[in-house]
């Protein structure tokens, strides 16, 4: 059932399609703040003031004529689902002035969750909402869904904001937020090749449930977040204990169908809006004539560097930088270089920005010739080959509970695992309620290694928090029940060598570190990355390159795609997309898709999952061999002791003095349940035995306490033991 209403005076549209209700409000102007000027903006305000809900409150009774519209923005959309509402707004600033070396799109995404949406006050000390890992991951999810659909070379400032206005505390607002900002962008005049639709589903007892509640998610076998169209996926996020490739494909196809319905509902808004996209210059593109000149000088050199099997990742990068400097010097010697302000398109004279913009295009062209034409990759690898891997356990000493080092080619990731009591879990509070994380992952991006500036540092920190959330979701289903093992696990991942996507490297090292700490996981999992190169992109997609010339020879003319396994640094920067897949022998436990140039067609997902399955099997075999060779005789130990309920107080002591002294003396973690079961964790077998004996002594007779005191005088534990000895004697 679909209901569409349109009020011309407010230029607001309300469209209902199945599970979502879309309502878009947009300005009749171009939406370009500086280009429109003060006069046009005042006209927009005057035109909307007469129909504003503030001046006519009775209009609020009609959802197509009132409510929250954010009319001052370039585009806005409110999306309703049951009792949840998200307002998506977009603002755009067009700068007519020259902005040299503006390679990166100035694209900012904000996601705001207010506790007022569920009628609660935040529990923080200042009673304000704090941005946590889940909110940061949602921002990154919104960016992954929207950014690939901007035109190539688009670097103008654009800000997208999704604000949760109301919620019933049951539905995850992420999908509503994606649909809201997508509708806002599609209904605006900002150049964007959308819209996209988003849907979340879960599986329970073999049945797919769309838009599940929090209770249904807690009982589900897996949950899937899909954003894209009915043909292409831009966001894929899977969390679960293990799902087969066939079952995952069925879930993705079902989600794509529902997402396509959301896309059609948004297209209705766009058609009724009758707004046209503004034509603006794409600054981050080289002059075609300058590109041809640069290619004639440097393309063959780039191809030789990428084909050299003797070079590692760092050496290739240094040689490519040197080749770029040589190209500029050669053109300067030939008198073919002009300053930025004298740059003349079509003159074949090169400005420094032309070289900056042309260089990644030429590198991608060289990689396309290798991958699509010769089935080769940098370093001499085949398309399905993994780089040499190395697994090391117990690489750190001291008080570290567990550590693991994973190396793959030039990539290195060091992970430490720390075991804590259940009281040391991370408490969370949000619109979906309060919770706790038994696995806490802190993923540190390779900031110092990458030599990044301040802006990139902030982006790296945000990406690191989002990756921390993804890794945490991948590890959480592997933990034992808290009743069986009331301990928490903290994972700290540090990238020591950057040579491609690092999230799966951190996951593999985290499994090693957990094994080093003897923390039991339900299954051994491994992660791998799959990338893609294509000779062209789908018509209308922003990744399509309008590059013609003789220098393009060598790439097959017919449309072709090739998958690459274990994505390297150059492939990650220049490829179409990256699929991160982790799992075990029986299935996939977590998955995440990052699109750079184009979406992932549904008919290519099955082959990508099959490629990941074969690569994952190789990693699991190597990982198990390394873990079997490890000598764990002196490793950490878990233990359990049953004591009488009336002895719990003696074990804990006044204010926790006894149990704290016990933990400090043996560097142990002790958890006492109300039923008298005592779980403990110690760094080695000797201290584990001492902890068990001390627990028995503390909960036993005064004679036993006296014997222990005489056996080891002068320790900090003795004061607490002596006090309890006197108490028991009394």
Automatic annotation (TrEMBL):
GO biological process, one term: mitochondrial mRNA catabolic process
Annotated region described as Disordered, given as residue ranges: 38-68
Keyword Magnesium attributed: no
Chain ranges of the K Homology domain: 635-700
GO molecular function ontology, one term from the record: polyribonucleotide nucleotidyltransferase activity
GO cellular component, as recorded: cytosol; mitochondrion
Ranges of Low complexity composition bias in the record: 49-63
Highest taxon of the lineage: Eukaryota
The entry's keywords: Nucleotidyltransferase, RNA-binding, Transferase
Gene3D superfamilies: GHMP Kinase, N-terminal domain, K Homology domain, type 1
SMART domains per UniProt: KH
One Pfam assignment: RNase_PH_C
Keyword Transmembrane helix recorded: no
The protein's name in its UniProt record: Polynucleotide phosphorylase 1
Organism: Apatococcus fuscideae
